[in-house]
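[scheduler] slot 2 assigned
[scheduler] job type: sequence-to-structure, two independent chains
[scheduler] chain ordering preserved from manifest
[runner] begin chain α
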Amino acid sequence: FDDPQQLVRANKAWEDLSACTELLECHVPDPKKSETWPIILALTHRAVWAYRQRGGTPARLRTALRQYILVDKELRGVLGQWWGEKAKRSNKDLPWGTAFCLLIEFRKECPDTWPFAGQRYRGFALGAWCNYQRSRRHWSGRRRLHEWQRKKLDSIGFPWEMREWRWYVMYAILKRFRVQHPDRWPAFAEMFEGKHIGHWCNSQRQARRWRQLDTQKVHLLTQLGFPWNPHADEWESMFRLLLKYRKKFPTQWPEHDKKFHGKWLGLWCISQRQYKKKGILDPEHVSRLDAIGFPWDPYAARWHFLFDLLKEFRIENPDRWPDRDEVYRGEHLGQWCQNQRNMRRTTRRYELREETIQRLRLLDSIGFPWSLDVQFVLDMCSLLASFREEYPHRWPKREEVYRGKNLGDWLRRQRDAKKKGKLKKEIDTKLKAMGAL
């Protein structure tokens, strides 16, 4: 070389290229057989040249090359799997600047999140590295986090308290949920945007109950209209729905197997009765339900309603009782009467409750016919009286049908029983009064 400086630069370049070759041979299994070996050498030599231009020293050339190889996308794509496997085995030896560059690339790809514990990124345990930096912030001595490192992390908004950052992320998700669903709040197990927003809302209520939620966070959620006691809000909505039901159907209460405006109002009423029976229903709720006449025992209320209906039936039809299949004002009154007879016949006297005994006395007070035979005789006597009013000059002929009843055959059987002395006294008295015997 004519110029001594050219000789010096050539010697440095040769030393740098030798160092590059030695470093890359550690990561490429067989460099002589690799087709990309010349490309790797060229790219690495470019990295060395850039490092020299920044004024780097040969003593730290190896560290600089490691960092450049991991960050440079083109070179990393050439090396491929070799460097990734090497990085998995040497996470502790990875320079701080290299990991910081990886963190920046992670944030560019995922701007809405930060690495969580155990997360790997391009073969590097980036989540564990972030947690390690948070721990170093409180340490002292050689392993402490340096001031320039802390400033670099602060410059990209690094979350030193992961819980705080996650809280504000979930708060933003909750606001977006309310924009899409302004008429409701997340259910307990509901997910939104891949997050368990329902579980998070429930944890906020528990934290506030145990006084573990920050005042500022409570204020933010309250401004959003967050329901701190969702059960109370749900009770109010169901109570208003019950008032609408009673306004539409003033003579009845919700049944357990029917919906009203898309809500299981009957099941809600059943749950209120169960809560009151267990003594866990709010006294204020009890008083409000009592104010609208809520039936705590629906079976008793139903019985008294049908009993009053039976009395109205008797006022309109004093000469008869409901038939077995008779429907009166939309209620199966005949079947209800038959149920009362079955209950009295199948239940022993000493097994009756006081409430049941009072019901039997009420039925006896209006002359309720406990036997269907007596009821049938009374109906046939009334039918015979109607026949005589319509045909006063004659009696029903044998096998004659009147108003759907075989009145002639029934009268013949009563006369035969009279001859044999088997006719009951009550029937004998009625038929003699009518002149049928």
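[runner] end chain α
[runner] begin chain β
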Amino acid sequence: MDITVSSVRTSIPDDATEQFNANVLPGNADNRAVTAWSSSNATVATVNATTGLVTAVSEGNTNIVATATDGSNVSGSAALQVTASQILVTSITVSSGRASIQENETEQFIANVLPGNADNRAVTWSSSNATVATVNATTGLVTAVSEGNTNIVATATDGSNVSGSAALQVTASQILVTSITVSSGRASIQENETEQFIANVLPGNADNRAVTYGPPVMRL
């Protein structure tokens, strides 16, 4: 008689189960029942003595053994490795210094990944509306594109599919004044006379073209 023990997986994480099977030869043996399943290291994995269903207990190695019940004492075994269960990400909180930025500005977004001892705390970044803002998939650096609203999303890469997001508003860039030319009808007037001075502010579409008059501003 010969017994071959097999399973789909030769390595499972702790707390997982795996079904082991015994192929007993010859096919015409009078008693091909294998009810004596055992584990060579029950601290690593236990096995149902009748069904061959294995339950992983802790990290390590063991052999799963099937023994014939016909009195021949023939047995077969297969090695099993038990690995520590992966600690998956359970939550991600996304934040940034500003919730609103202007077109063409950048803003760094940060992901707080929990638990702190997760095996893989890496995230990938994405924007729900790339026409409003784009984001570097690795670093979380956001670049505003056009006026509107979007969500900046961080997604765990450990297979947990956990994600977190934060809203971002992009406003139109302020058009600033680039030059002011001051003129008047006369460059010289007498005491007690008045003269109107005019400021030509450029560009013409600046958001705020108002000016104040006064002495020159000293710049150091």
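[runner] end chain β
[qc] chain β: The chain is about 0% helix and 50% strand.
[scheduler] slot 2 released
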